[in-house]
Amino acid sequence: MKKSYRRAALAGVSALAVAMWGPLASAATGTQAGTNINNTASVSYSVGGVSQTPVASNIATFVVDRKANVMVAEVGGAATSVAFGQTDQVTTFTVTNTTNATQDFRLFATNIGIGLTTQLGHTDNFTVTNIRVFVDSNGNGTYDAGVDTATFIDELAPDQTKTVFVVADIPASGPASGISGVQLTAVVATGGGAGLGADLTQSLVDDPAQIDTVFADAAGYVDAVRDARFSAGDEYNIAAPTAQVTKTAVVISDPLNGVVAPKAIPGAVVEYCIQVKNIGSQALTSVGVTDNIPANTTYLANSTYVGGTVLLAACVFDGAQATDGNVFNGTRIATSIANIAVGATTTTRFRVTLN
């Protein structure tokens, strides 16, 4: 008799184990919240050596509760390089639903604050403005202005990920080595309805007949453990200068010595050479060079040459002569260079007469 009851009990436990834990191997988030776990035990026995009809227990049932969890991660592992005055600059994150149910996610982003350390390990020393958050609508991983307009994640299934962009404007000025940290927070919200659902709240007691909620998230960048939210940080860095500018002045001739050891005396001709070197990792484009004609000098007509090279740190006479009407306005010269390749140096040169 005892063995019969023991076998029945073990069979019931095994059935319950399969019902409860079998699906866990198929999804990282576990059994879907709202799943009914039903189990019936069966007892076989004998009376006077005669086997009797097995007796079934009632159905023991409970509903799988919601294990609220979310992960936010910065994409790329490096800061976004920007320049002062730029608008709509983008940092990129992913939000992954690690809750065992389909959920909405409320999103918000803020500066971390001047003097604080960014998640990438640098000290924040300027503040970006007009911070906005947008969800990648077409899954291409690139922010498309006017296309990516959603500001929250709607109905994200378990184990699914969305790309999210933090977009901000860079102030007109700031420190030369500017760093501005930002953080994105995703808050687990109620799914299943139109629009953004309300933030989840944690259940105080267990009700086996309904879906209770348990917060299970770890602490993020600026949030606490088990608060149904997660945050990650990124930063905007003011890009280091990639153009190196060197200007030289050489006396070409004077009215007494001519071109032999000329001196800077009234009437002397002085040549200015402005060298622009690309010290960055990408080509420089739309390069503009502006130089005011110095006081006590007079611009020498038709003396501007653009796009030359250098030899031993001096201008080489291989640039194109510019038309004064295009480059000289009476007080300054202004030239434009379409492209300077990485590592290359391009020059603008012009001459003046010393009054």
Task: Kindly list the characteristics that best describe this protein.
single chain; 355 residues; mainly beta; Immunoglobulin-like; 3 domains; 6-stranded antiparallel beta sheet; 5-stranded mixed beta sheet; 2 helices; 7% helix; 44% strand; disordered N terminus
Q: Layout of helices and strands, plus pairs?
A:
Layout: H1 2-21, E1 36-43, E2 46-47, E3 50-51, E4 55-63, E5 66-68, E6 70-74, E7 80-82, E8 89-97, E9 103-111, E10 129-135, E11 152-156, E12 161-169, E13 179-189, E14 213-215, E15 229-238, E16 243-253, E17 269-278, E18 284-292, E19 297-299, E20 305-308, E21 310-311, E22 314-315, E23 320-321, H2 324-327, E24 332-340, E25 345-354
Parallel strand pairs: 5-14, 7-15
Antiparallel strand pairs: 1-4, 2-3, 6-8, 8-12, 9-11, 9-13, 10-12, 13-15, 16-17, 17-25, 18-24, 19-25, 20-23, 20-25, 21-22
Task: Please explain how this structure is put together.
With 355 residues, this protein is mainly beta. The chain folds into 3 domains: 63 residues, no CATH class; 171 residues, Immunoglobulin-like; 112 residues, Immunoglobulin-like (Sandwich). It has 2 helices and 25 strands. The strands form 8 sheets. Strands 16, 17, 19, 20, 23 and 25 form a 6-stranded antiparallel beta sheet that branches. A 5-stranded mixed beta sheet has the order 7-15-13-9-11, with no helix packed on it. Strands 6-8-12-10 form a 4-stranded antiparallel beta sheet, with no helix packed on it. A hairpin with a 2-residue loop joins strand 21 and strand 22. The termini are far apart. The N terminus is likely disordered.
